[in-house]
Amino acid sequence: MTGMSRRTLLLGGLGLGAAALTGCTSAPAAGPVPSASGPMPTLPPATPRPGQRIVEQVLTAKPVTLDLGGPTVPTWAYGDTAPGPLVRATAGDFLRIRLDNQLPADTTIHWHGIRLHNKADGVPGMTQDPVPAGGSFTYEFTAPDPGTYFFHPHVGVQLDRGLYAPLIVDDPNEPGAYDAEWVVVLDDWVDGTGRTPDDVLAKLIADGGPAPSGGMGGMGGMGGMDHGGHGGGNAPQPWGDAGDVTYPYFLINGRVPTAPATFEAKPGQRVRIRLINAASDTIFTVALGGHRLTVTHSDGFPVEPQEVDALYLGMGERYDALVTLDDGVFPLVARPFGKTEGGQGLALVRTGSGQAPGPDVSPAELAGRILLATDLRPHESVRLPSRSPDATAHMSLEGSMSPYRWGINGAPFGQNQPLTVREGQRLRLNVMNMTMMTHPLHLHGHTFALPSGLRKDTVLLAPMQSMALELDADNVGDWMVHCHNIYHAEAGMMIGLLYRG
Ligand code: C2O
Ligand code: CU
What we know:
Layout: H1 3-15, H2 17-20, E1 54-67, E2 72-78, E3 87-90, E4 94-101, E5 110-112, E6 136-142, E7 147-152, E8 165-170, E9 180-189, H3 197-208, E10 249-252, E11 261-264, E12 270-277, E13 284-288, E14 293-298, E15 301-308, E16 310-313, E17 318-324, E18 329-336, E19 345-350, E20 370-371, E21 391-400, E22 405-408, E23 419-421, E24 426-433, E25 439-443, E26 448-449, E27 455-456, E28 458-461, E29 466-472, E30 478-483, H4 486-490, E31 494-499
Parallel strand pairs: 1-4, 3-8, 9-12, 11-19, 16-20, 21-24, 23-31
Antiparallel strand pairs: 1-2, 4-6, 5-7, 7-8, 9-10, 12-17, 13-16, 13-18, 14-15, 14-17, 18-19, 21-22, 24-29, 25-28, 25-30, 26-27, 30-31
The protein binds CU-O-CU linkage and copper (II) ion.
């Protein structure tokens, strides 16, 4: 079968998704289709129902020395690798995951993107006490929606160590019409190279200089205009200035590009690639040399498939793509957006003989059509029912590099007024990025809809961009909304979204 006819078949299969919703299980199995039941309508329970399948796992957060494929770095990780161990469940399963904290610091785990019970969300001071050094905490929750997720601490800038790992929730109705599945985790790496992420944050704050007196009056407006430097160049710059930190390495699945992870398959095989950006300060452009990618899911939720040359992944975003492989050795490249130092992320795809491309390979696809989330449309099965909002909240993303201070709605987290919502409401969030940097905005415990209807939990907002996000308030609790640049978040770019009677 040729690549083209496979692709045609795939698109045809996805077109049948709506028919499959009526319970037709004999539809041609031609690609991932959304869960037959769609997203679970009610709040996922905090305790297992009788007969519910239980997935149990223990994660040990601990100091470790990692070999990144040449450089060795002292860091913190879940077990002996970064990314840490895959957690895998089927939608509707109950997860019982014990965190053993062997770090010399408090920590927690946040299950990024999962519409889980609030008590399991992992936000210290909001949903739980931090897990102290030597302590343990058991996270218990139902994973209601299939998709590609990940998990990481919600304490300080620990995410920028090796503390991250994929979480895959399989669709029980997934036809699985692909030959292989690869989980591809992107990261920017600094820990153990003479600096820790805590050092990086301290330096950002020190270099930003003192805050002007007069409280938060300086926040907002065009803050960050001074920081147009390294994002420059002549290429189209949809994200303007995209990062604050200079990293020595960019990793794919924990490897530097001189010793890349290698995925093996046979020519003609169709592969589902699950891309996760676990970086703290880096937007990547991802491409597979010699191939186009058919994007099927965004942040776990199905989309109308689109074929692209490359795609942008902001911090915390995930995309799934299908690709039919050619014969040879191909570079899977994660090019850091707007960063000129530290090279790039690289993995290899090998289906035949041939010379492996070098660490600086630049596939032509990087200059082709690059997908923006706003180009995608949701699969019909996951569209929010149309309804006018019951409530509107405004979110103004503000801040600057000098002083290094970020906030939402006029103040950093802790000083800003939390947003509130009532259970059952359709909430519109009018988000305005009032800065000259791009921010990946992430909401806990829910998946919002972009104006196109696209369902996501993390969305990139370019400098001065506004976007109306809508969500159904169906998961009672106290939740975070924040920038997933972990340095911005830690410097204050977070706000609470609290359910109130
Ligand atoms: Cu992945 Cu609150 O974050
Ligand atoms: Cu930010």
